[in-house]
Design a protein that fits this description.
- The complex is a heterodimer of chains A (235) and B (257).
- Chain A is mainly alpha-helical and 235 residues long.
- Chain A is 77% helix and 0% strand.
- Chain A has a domain of 162 residues: MetI-like fold (Orthogonal Bundle), CATH 1.10.3720.10.
- In chain A, helix 2 runs antiparallel to helix 3, helix 5 crosses helix 7 and helix 7 runs antiparallel to helix 9.
- Helices cover 37% and strands 24% of the residues of chain B.
- In chain B, the strands form two sheets. A six-stranded mixed beta sheet of chain B has the order 6-7-8-3-9-10, with helices on both faces.
- The chains are: A mainly alpha (235), B alpha/beta (257).
- Chains A and B meet through helix 6 and helix 7 of A and strand 6 and helix 3 of B.
- The complex binds adenosine-5'-diphosphate (ADP) and magnesium ion (MG).
- The site of magnesium ion has 3 residues of chain B, from helix 1.
Chain lengths: 235, 257
């Protein structure tokens, strides 16, 4: 068996074309997960009775399930429910028309919300509790203290975790190919369907995933350095 | 009791869990007065200051600052915020806003809490920072400052809001010994402007020289109070005498005559 370098190039091009799709599959859940995960983290940080424990239970549950399993469950449910729902609405769509990337984004968003809520909770706990007192003593409301003093200090602390979660999302997004979304992974595979040079195709996909993760990690570490330099704690 | 007091607290009780920490504090502070709060560690001094600006919620008692009074057992959020904005606190560990510059540390309470116009707040902030000798460090971050400089910012931040009562909790305890005197001198200068101060301190010479009144606390209650001459020179209570003796052992301070 030979390794066809020129086909590696072809596969790279085909896969690289779908980088925007893979980025969307990972970054939309990252943003939605932040919007959902931050309030969850706050509820747990402030130990809101009942709600706090409920969220903790849900997070533990989600962390113990493979994301791909959630994807399949969503796929099956939406496959069963979509057509009757469209009929009910009187719309001429079937499950074939349904963008499957939405299913992947939903599954990844659930995973991201759980993971990010943990990251934010940890970062909040890392802020010196006296910063809350300081804000209150200056006459700030609880919300003002949180938004202007505590969260800006928690953010840089959370960045290494957020960076890990982001690269995990990029890699997990590859499973969208299982529900026929054409992302980097799937584009590489498709490019080899004619000549069966799957090894080259997989190598191309690997190179692109590696490049994406590497660049994102670098970007996060630069961001973290800039932010922490401005507010190193005075231990 | 005292009508012209600027701050008056009556029957203040506070427990942490089952542990009583303050057991009926009565204290009235006159405008322009400097009150030194002395007492052994664990006697409840910090908790008292924190109850006065609601960083802790007292279990019982009444508090009046200027013309606003409140039953501490059932204070509402709005009342708490309004009363709290009449005081300012200088902390033992400076506790500056770590994500803000020196100037922002001072303007934050003015712009955000008191809705002062930004330009006006900056003018005020620069003025007080000048007063504490930090006019050239406006854009520095807390971690770039020495302890003494951080505490100057802490004091400037408190002065800027021109509070009815300024609370100090051991403002020099965390400082290097050679920095203590300059901060004490600064606080004395503040006291000389006629601002009302309550200051928890272990600096006995400072309390003796600067305070108009010394209040000695132990075990969650006020044991004795009076002028520095009375309390240091002729303590009425045995507990006061014992506490002061520990500080004056081996010294023959001229101010104890
Ligand atoms: N948040 C808290 N929870 C439980 N106990 C506390 C808390 N804060 C203070 N205490 C207790 O209250 C007592 C008085 O503490 P404090 O007011 O800090 O005394 P001081 O400032 O005079 O040293 C101490 O026994 C301390 O352990
Ligand atoms: Mg104390």
């Amino acid at each position: 068996m030979t390794f066809d370098l020129s086909f590696l190039g072809t596969a790279l091009l085909a896969a690289a074309n779908k980088i925007p799709t893979t980025l969307a599959l990972a970054l939309i859940p990252l943003v939605l997960g932040t919007v959902i995960g931050l309030p969850l983290a706050l509820v747990r940080f402030y130990r809101v009775p009942v709600l706090g424990q409920g969220i903790q239970g849900a997070v533990t549950l989600i962390k113990g399930i493979p994301v791909v399993l959630m994807l399949f469950v969503f796929y099956v449910i939406s496959g069963k429910a979509f057509d009757p729902f469209m009929q009910f609405l009187g719309l001429p769509f079937t499950f074939r028309d349904f963008p499957k990337s939405i299913i992947a984004i939903a599954a990844l968003t659930i995973y991201a919300s759980a993971a990010l809520s943990e990251a934010f909770r940890g970062a909040l706990a890392a802020v010196n509790p006296s910063q809350f007192d300081t804000g209150a003593a200056a006459g700030l409301t609880q919300a003002q203290t949180l938004g202007r003093i505590v969260l800006p200090q928690a953010l840089p602390v959370s960045l290494p975790m957020v960076s890990n979660i982001t690269t995990a999302l990029i890699k997990a997004a590859a499973m969208a190919s299982l529900v026929s979304v054409v992302d980097v992974m799937n584009a590489a595979v498709i490019s080899a369907n004619g000549n069966y040079r799957y090894l080259e195709a997989y190598a191309a996909a690997a190179l692109i995933y590696w490049g994406l993760c590497f660049s994102l990690e670098k970007a996060f570490s630069v961001g973290e350095k800039v932010l922490t330099r401005r507010m190193r704690s005075v231990a | 009791m005292s009508h012209d007091a600027i701050l008056e607290v009556r029957g203040l009780h506070k427990s942490f869990g089952k542990k009583p920490v303050l057991t009926g504090i009565d204290l009235a502070v006159e405008p322009g007065e400097t009150v030194a709060l002395l007492g052994p560690s664990g006697s409840g001094k910090t908790t008292l200051l924190r109850c006065l600006n609601f960083l802790e919620c007292a279990d019982a008692g009444t508090l009046r600052i200027e013309n606003q009074s409140v039953d501490l057992r059932q204070a509402h959020k709005k009342e708490i915020l309004a009363l709290r904005r009449r005081t300012a606190m200088v902390f033992q560990n400076y506790d500056l806003f770590l994500n803000k510059t020196v100037l922002q540390n001072v303007t934050e309470g003015l712009i955000v809490a008191r809705k002062a116009p930004k330009e006006e707040a900056i003018v005020t902030a620069k003025q007080v920072l000048e007063q504490v000798g930090l006019a050239d460090r406006l854009d520095a971050r807390p971690h770039e400052l020495s302890g003494g400089q951080q505490q100057r910012v802490g004091i400037a931040r408190a002065l800027a809001i021109n509070p009815a009562v300024l609370l100090f909790d051991e403002p020099t305890s965390a400082l290097d010994p050679e920095k203590v005197q300059e901060i004490l001198d600064l606080i004395r200068a503040v006291a000389d402007t006629g601002m009302t101060l309550i200051i928890v301190t272990h600096e006995m010479a400072f309390a003796y020289e600067v305070a108009h009144r010394v209040v000695f606390m132990e075990g969650g209650e006020i044991v004795e109070q009076g002028t520095p001459q009375q309390v240091f020179g002729a303590p009425k209570q045995e507990r006061t005498a014992q506490f002061l003796a520990r500080f004056t052992e081996g010294k023959t301070p001229e101010y104890f005559i």
